[in-house]
Each structure stands twice: as C-alpha cells, then as structure tokens.
Amino acid sequence: MKPLANLWKFVRSALLLALACALVVVILPGKARSQLGLDPCCAIISAGLESISGLLKEVVAKPLASIQQNDQQSADFERQVVWPVTAINQARGLAVQAQGQFTQMRQLFQVPVSSATLPTPQQLEQSLLSRNPGAVAQISNNYSSLYGPTVAQTDAPQPVRDLVDMTDAAAQAAMKRAVEIDALADLELQAAEQINQQLQNAAPGSAPILEAQTSAWLVRANAYTQSAMAELIRVRSIELANQGAQLKFSSSHAGTLHSTGGQVLQQGVQ
Q: For residues 124 and 178, what is the distance between their CA atoms, to the nearest angstrom?
C-alpha cells in the first residue's frame, strides 16, 4: 500500500505541474508566444503527457502486473490444492453412493418382524412395533391383558405383590422406551438422508457448516444410544433384584419351616 500511495503522490504532482505550465502559456500574450517561434503550450503539454505515460508504464504497470500474478497464483492454489475439482467430484460420488446405501438400510429397517398369532399378544406386539410414540399409552392395557393385572391383596403376601408390581413396572417402562427409541431412530435416519442429499449439491465453502450439522446429530445419536443402554441396565437390574428377592423369600420360608418343625418335635416328645 505504501508504494502505491507514493506513486499516486508523484502522479498528482506531475499532473499539477503540467496543468500549471499550460495555464501560464495560455495567459501569456499572443506576441510573447509568437516570439518563441513555436507555440510552447502544445510542447509543454505533450512533454507532460509523455512523462506521465512513461511513469504509468514503469511505476504503475509493473506493480499491478505483479499483483495480478499473485492473485492468479492464489486462485490456482485454491483450485488445485485447497478445493481440487477431482476431489470434490469424488466426494459427491461418495455421497450419492451413501444415499443409495441409506435407502437400502431404510428398506431393511422397515421389514415387518411381527410374529404373534393370537389376538391378545398381537395387540401388544402391534403397539411395541408401531414406532409411534402415540401408541405408548396403549401398552399398559395391552400388557395387563396379556400378563394379567396386579395380584390381589388376598391372593399373595404384600412382599410378593410388591415384587410383582415392580417387575411389571420395569417391563412396561422398557417396552415404552423401546417404542420411543424406534421413533428416534427414524428421525435420525431422516436427518442422515437429508444431510447426505445436501452434500451431493453442496458448494465447497459450505462443507464446514454441514460438518458441524453432522457432528450435532452424531452427539444426539450417542445420547439416544446411552439412553437405550440405560434402559437395558434397568431391566437387568430388576431381573437381578427379583433373583435376590426369591432367595430372600426362600430363606425366610426355610427359617419358618425350621422353627415350626422344632416346635412340632418338642410337642411330640412331651
């Protein structure tokens, strides 16, 4: 920038000098100019213009040519190294191939797997495989119809009723969570297909934006995976708790039987 500023100052000074000389010649009387033999006005202006022309060729043209060359080199570097056309076309081809794979995955993901044959199990299975969060409210009724309602108070001791109730609650919660996770998986597939379609027609400069969008969806997918893992852990915990409760019940029954047997033996001895 500094050489260009100095160049502009020099050109401005030369122009002002040429204009001043022309103005002086014009103001001189006609006799004075005729005494010079030739009209000095044209000679001075011509000399000034030639000087300015030479100055533009030597001082201005060379820096501008250098700047243009640097710009062309930068453009060639971006086109050949930073954003090469071949690599961009390969990436777009990969995106098209991935889109086809996503379509196949969705088709496989939607293959029906229902297997129940009786009416009551079919109702529960239909709710579990619906992939619709709106069907979650139907699971409790369908579960009770298939596995039976809560044990009545007169049919079992309170510890047994509590254990059965907790087991039913954990099973129903896992079923409801499975339906929600299926719905989330559908949303993730839709988002993946949308991002892949954008990649097919994306400009090179928009790649960071799409990359950030993909990273955000990846974080969401990991969160949903962790939620599903937590649900499996809860189901497994309930199963282990039930096994422990069964052992406790057996131990309590054995203690009661031992005490009752001892009392019967003592009465027989007497």
A: 13
Cα separation of 127 and 264, whole Å? 55
For tokens 């001082």, name the residue. Answer: 59
User: Which two three-digit tokens encode residue 116?
Assistant: 């129940």
With a pLDDT cut of 90, the percent of the chain lying above it is 9
Give the contacts of 156 (CB within 8 A, at least 6 positions apart): 164
Predicted TM-score (pTM) of the model is: 0.57
> What are 9-39's pLDDT values in tens digits?
655 666 666 666 555 555 555 444 444 444 5
Q: Which residues contact 40 (CB under 8 A, 6 or more apart)?
A: 25, 33
Secondary structure of 55-97 in the HEC alphabet? HHHHHHHHHHHHHHHHHHHHHHHHHHHHCCHHHHHHHHHHHHH
Distances (CA, A) of 17 to 24, 29, 36, 41: 11, 21, 21, 13
Where on the phi/psi map is residue 132: left (φ > 0), alpha (ψ -120 to 50), or beta?
A: beta
**Average pLDDT value over all residues in the chain:** 75
Q: For residues 169 and 238, what is the distance between their CA atoms, to the nearest angstrom?
A: 10
User: According to the model, what pLDDT value does residue 45 have?
Assistant: 60
The residue ranges of the chain whose pLDDT is under 50 are 30-38
H helix and E strand count, the chain: 9, 0
